[in-house]
Amino acid sequence: MQIEDMNWAMVAETLRAEDRCVLPLGCTEQHATLSLATDTRLAARVAAEAAEGLGVPVFPALPYGVTPSFTAYPGTVSLRVSTYLALLDDLLSGLHAQGFRRILIVNGHGGNSPGQGWLGEWLARHPDARVQWHNWWNAPRTWAAVQATDELASHASWMENFPWTRLEGVAAPEERKPMVDVAALRQLPPALVRERLGDGNYGGLHRRPDREMQRIWQEAVAETRALLEAGWAHP
């Protein structure tokens, strides 16, 4: 049930029997040869497939996040943390005001993590709500599937290279990049991050066979669906 395919009356009717919804969070940032919207596309898709058939509304993915280190790469857009937290506050409070009490956040971007830390503050102000923050790509089952496939997996590497994140006519390099020193990278300003990182892949292959990616994706969807169905804390 994609919100974009519903009108207000349909949502009102849904709320008579359903207090769950899904809010995907993405980002617009460099992903080497992949789409700048990779994080947004992946969060939106895993959310939609996980909720399929459950009658739970899935809201449009938020396409901007916190990614200041990549702003030297053209096309990357970053929000300030203060802006991002205020935006999350407005979104969650708006959903709560309409009657949603169980909200699954499907997050697709690691830089959005300040929101996860802040969430307890929002819950303290909304004690009747339950919110799950789900980093879909490194949740236990999904990350285990990634590691079983190839231990060298990172930002903008093969682990984010799905048919729906690739760009037509753009070939992926064949090289297996050594892993960058992430701790050192975090100390650098954007221009030096780009200089040190090159195309944007942190390390590893740029692409693996689609049959392997499909196994990982199926695990990610199943893990997300399990949270939507049975991951809610009870009083």
Draw up the topology in text.
Blueprint: H1 8-14, E1 20-25, H2 38-51, H3 81-98, E2 102-107, H4 113-125, E3 130-135, H5 140-149, H6 182-185, H7 190-197, H8 210-230
Parallel strand pairs: 1-2, 2-3
Helix pairs in contact: 2-8, 3-4, 5-8
Protein name: Creatininase
Pfam family, one: Creatininase
Keywords: Hydrolase, Metal-binding, Zinc
Structural features, described:
The structure is a single chain. The protein is mainly alpha-helical and 235 residues long. It is 40% helix and 8% strand. It is built from eight helices and three strands. Strands 1-2-3 form a three-stranded parallel beta sheet, sandwiched between helices. Helix 4 (113-125) links the parallel strand 2 (102-107) and strand 3. Helix 3 crosses helix 4. It is globular, with a radius of gyration of 18 Å.
Give the key terms:
mainly alpha; 235 residues; 8% strand; globular
Short description:
This protein has 235 residues and is mainly alpha-helical.
Query: Class by helix and strand content?
Result: mainly alpha
Number of strand elements: 3
Mean pLDDT: 97
* Beta-strand proportion: 5-15%
N-end to C-end Cα span = 28 Å
Side-by-side strand order of the widest sheet: 1-2-3
**Sheet of most strands:** 3 strands, parallel
How much helix is in the residues?
40-55%
* Number of separate helices: 8
Cα Rg = 18 Å
What is the approximate shape? Answer: globular
Which consecutive residue ranges, at least 5 long each, have pLDDT under 50?
A: none
Cofactor: Zn(2+)
Keywords: Hydrolase, Metal-binding, Zinc
Pfam families: Creatininase
Organism: Deinococcus knuensis
